[in-house]
Design a protein that fits this description.
Elements lengths: L40 E4 L6 E8 L2 E4 L17 E5 L4 E4 L5 H14 L4 E5 L5 H4 L2 H7 L2 E5 L2 H20 L1 H4 L9 E3 L2 E5 L4 E6 L9 E5 L4 E9 L10 H6 L1 H5 L5 E6 L4 E2 L5 H19 L4 H7 L11 H17 L2
Parallel strand pairs: 5-6, 6-7, 7-8, 12-13
Antiparallel strand pairs: 1-2, 2-3, 3-4, 4-5, 9-10, 10-11, 11-12, 13-14
Helix pairs in contact: 1-3, 8-9, 8-10, 9-10
Length: 334
């Protein structure tokens, strides 16, 4: 998710049927009929509001489904999908959540799933809903893993995140949050051995951000994409539209059976989970190219670019204008 201060577009409410709160309350996606929905691995957050539940989507792979929503005090920042992979000797966690409250509930729930130590925390990218819980996992002794560009990105934006999200989710949820960068960096590819189970990490070129990292579990053919994949939730652009489109085929070529997107139903089918996202970006690029060719200025172009997709996505009005603004400058210099 991008920075709250940089959102474009209007603030019209999203159709409540589209804004599905899926965190821990509903089963969705491919394979739901084959696996238990709610396994009882639940923990209440410190405030007593957030009910954190993990569901097993494949052998030894557990996920929390975040709310398809903006981060607020009401949802305690729990909007990103988070995952756990259990090996013979140790555990890897993918993303730490949008607050320490959520991260502590996550850690408590992991303890109900397995007694094995959390050896790695994998950050898929820089946005606060994915990394604000890092300090809790650092304090467990986990090695934090990230894209080669992630430390620089966090250094550049960390202070802004701490200030702007304090206004967005409130002082209580921000208490104790630190910007904790990774200490193990992925320049291109890296394998993490959990004991009889290897996660394959890949650092991507600029797309959603310039620090996107994915993880693939070959044992279950489960692909953890972070925000390179959005389902239901409108994709958000904080990197490169052209870079994202260029890498779509490489993403789709990953031989996964299921995907855990950064936002949206878990698990989702693969590679069809990419289809709507790819189409939205192609429409957005086409609309902006036409506007640029016609000499339409940025302020006017962003009002209409991508609008034909409005009825297909949650949070469209919150993010389409921001996406168009970011893409316009890139396409102008194409």
């Amino acid at each position: 998710m991008p920075d709250p201060a940089s959102r474009g577009g209007g603030a019209a409410p999203v159709d409540p049927l589209r804004r599905r709160l899926i965190g821990g309350f509903a089963c969705a996606g491919v394979g739901a009929a084959l696996l238990p929905c709610c396994l009882g691995h639940a923990a209440l957050a410190a405030t007593g509001q957030l009910r954190f539940e993990l569901k097993e989507i494949a052998d030894g792979v557990f996920t929390f489904e975040g709310a398809v929503d903006l981060e607020t005090s009401a949802n305690e920042g729990a909007i990103a999908n988070l995952s756990v992979v259990v090996g013979r000797d140790a555990v890897a966690v993918i993303d730490s959540g949008g607050s320490l409250v959520e991260a502590k509930a996550f850690i408590e729930t992991i303890g109900k799933v397995t007694a094995k130590p959390v050896r790695y925390l994998i950050n898929t990218h820089m946005h606060p809903d994915h990394i604000f819980g890092n300090a809790a996992f650092r304090d467990l002794g986990a090695t934090i893993v990230g894209h080669r560009n992630l430390p620089r990105a966090l250094e550049a934006r960390g202070d802004f995140y701490l200030k702007s999200y304090r206004e967005q989710i409130g002082e209580a949820l921000m208490r104790g949050i630190e910007i904790v960068p990774p200490t193990l960096l992925v320049k291109d590819r890296l394998e993490l051995d959990l004991g009889g189970r290897v996660l394959e990490l890949k650092a991507w070129e600029a797309a959603h951000t310039d620090n996107d990292l994915t993880a693939y579990d070959d044992a279950t053919r489960t692909f953890f994409t972070g925000d390179l994949v959005f389902v239901d939730h409108l994709p958000t652009l904080d990197g490169s539209l052209l870079g994202w489109l260029r890498q779509m085929d490489a993403l789709a070529a990953i031989k996964a059976q299921r995907v855990v997107p950064g936002h949206g139903p878990v698990p989702s089918g693969w590679p069809e989970a990419l289809d709507a996202e790819r189409h939205y970006f192609e429409v957005l690029a086409s609309d902006l190219r036409k506007a640029i060719a016609a000499g339409i200025p940025l302020a006017e172009a962003v009002k209409t670019a991508g609008r034909s997709e409005a009825g297909k996505w949650a949070l469209f009005d919150e993010y389409d204008g921001r996406n168009a603004t970011a893409a316009f400058a890139e396409l102008e210099w194409e």
